[in-house]
Amino acid sequence: MIDAYVASTVNKKVCATGVVVRSEKDEFRKVLKLKSGTSLNIAELEGAIFALEAVKPEFREETVNLHTRSTYVIGFTTRKTNGDWYAYPSKNAEMVDRFRSTLATFKDLKMVKVQRDHNMTETVKALIASA
Residue 28, SS3? Predict the structure, then answer.
């Protein structure tokens, strides 16, 4: 099983997303510095894409849990009862399409909604602060 954690900080000083991807054997940590003025939703979506892309293709057959506090990101993984994707704002269409095409490369991907004070969220925020 692989766990990927995403947390973002967007304020006047810092605009970044932190990612921690863990398996039983390995751990990967990365901070992505984003353009000033990036919204929190876009930062979280960019982090989710980066976290999933960091999982090597040979491990995408395993169960992967993507942990995020972002309802925005989780919403893009939801389908209507007829199997169609829910619509999304056209200004983010390319990024959402990239996210969804990345999702399709995983056999068993689970979205995990975490609370703001979740211990890994705090760990990822500390990673961002140290970068």
Answer: strand
